[in-house]
Amino acid sequence: MRVVFRLFYALLLLAIFFVGAWFSFEKAIVGRSVTVPDLTGKTVTEAIGIAHDIGLRVEEEAKRARSDEKIPKDHVLAQTPEAGSLAKPSQILHVIVSLGPAQLKTPDLEGLPPRAAALKLSQQSLQLGTLSWYRDAGAKVGIVAQEPEPEATTAKNASVEVLTNRGVPEVRYVMPDLVGKDAERMRAKLEASGFRVGSARYESYEGIASNTILKQFPPAGYPIGSREVVSLTVSRAAEPVPPVAR
Question: Distance between CA 106 and CA 111 in Å, rounded?
Answer without folding.
Answer: 15
